[in-house]
UniProtKB/TrEMBL annotation:
The gene is grpE. HAMAP family: GrpE. It is found in: Cytoplasm. The keyword Cell inner membrane does not apply. Coiled coil: none annotated. Keywords: Chaperone, Cytoplasm, Stress response. It comes from the Bacteria. SUPFAM superfamilies: Coiled-coil domain of nucleotide exchange factor GrpE, Head domain of nucleotide exchange factor GrpE. This is Protein GrpE. GO terms for molecular function: adenyl-nucleotide exchange factor activity; protein homodimerization activity; protein-folding chaperone binding; unfolded protein binding.
């Protein structure tokens, strides 16, 4: 039929050679060998994957830290709220402490008089007031002469030479009662202790 020129045969052979070379490259890739172009692409993909993994780890770490910080915030605010409820009336209760002291002094003075009815009336009012305040969480700090002095609890008004050896470092006299609201001391007992 048609005769091909020599040039056409050569160009046809060149195209076939190129196709064969590409097919061999692809076959080599399937057999486990890589060509330089594909190797660069794989290296880029691996480095991109590593970068994404690193970013994911950083974001996960940020999330965990933020979550822990939020949990600590919730615990702290919950604790503060509970503490607030416990000591909500602290200012009012502290303002009432001098009134309680006055009642105690009045009871001492009235007990010296002969008017027992007035003593009963003042005792009744005093005990009602103390019961109401105790119901709100106010407690007397039990302090008496002979107790060991504790600087965390007691407020030393003065030091005196101990009247006896057994009172050295101990409370000699209680000047003013101390009170606490829940676990918090709102007024330290004022004491005199021996050296």
């Amino acid at each position: 039929m048609f005769k091909m020129s020599k040039k056409s045969k050569e160009s046809k052979n060149t195209v076939e050679d190129k196709d064969t070379a590409q097919t061999q490259e692809k076959t080599q890739n399937v057999n486990g060998e890589q060509n330089p172009e594909n190797q660069e692409t794989v290296v880029e993909e691996v480095s991109e994957l590593d970068a994404l993994k690193e970013d994911l780890a950083k974001e996960k770490d940020k999330f965990l830290r933020l979550f822990a910080e939020f949990e600590n915030y919730k615990k702290r605010t919950s604790k503060e709220r509970i503490e607030l409820f416990k000591t909500a009336g602290q200012d009012i209760l502290q303002a009432m402490l001098p009134v309680i002291d006055d009642f105690d002094r009045a009871l001492v003075e009235i007990s010296k008089s002969e008017d027992k009815e007035m003593l009963k009336g003042v005792e009744l009012i005093s005990s009602k007031l103390k019961n109401v305040l105790e119901g709100k969480g106010l407690e007397v700090i039990d302090t008496k002469a002979g107790d060991t002095f504790d600087a965390e609890v007691h407020d030393a008004v003065t030091q005196i030479p101990a009247p006896s050896d057994d009172l050295k470092g101990k409370i000699v006299d209680v000047i003013e009662k101390g009170y606490k609201l829940g676990d918090k001391i709102i007024r330290h007992p004022k004491v005199v202790f021996g050296q």
